[in-house]
Specification:
0% strand, single chain
Length: 107
Amino acid sequence: MSLDTHQSEGRRERLTPHEAVQRLEHERASRLTQLRAIGEAGAAEEQVMSTQKDTIRRVLAQVEAALARVEDGSYGVCQDCAKPIPVERLEILPYTPFCVPCQRNTA
C-alpha cells in the first residue's frame, strides 16, 4: 500500500492504513451526525437544509471512495499526477484524491 509522502524536516513521511481508516471513519461519522441533525430541523429551513444535505452526501461519497482506495492500495497517491499526496494534506482532508497542484487544476 502506497501511503508514502514527501518528508520535510521532522515531519512524518507516511500515514498508516490504520490512521487513514480512523480519520476517514471519523469524517463519515461526523457527516452522518450532521445529516441526522438536519433531518430534525424544521420545515422553514428546508431549502438551506437541502443544500447542506447535498454537500454532506457528496463528502460522504468522497469518504467512501477514499476507504476503497485504502483497501486497493491507492490511498495517498494523487489520482491525476500519481505522485504521493503530502501527509499534512491527508491529515487535514483525509478523503482528498488529489495533491494541491492537481486540485487547483481540476477546480
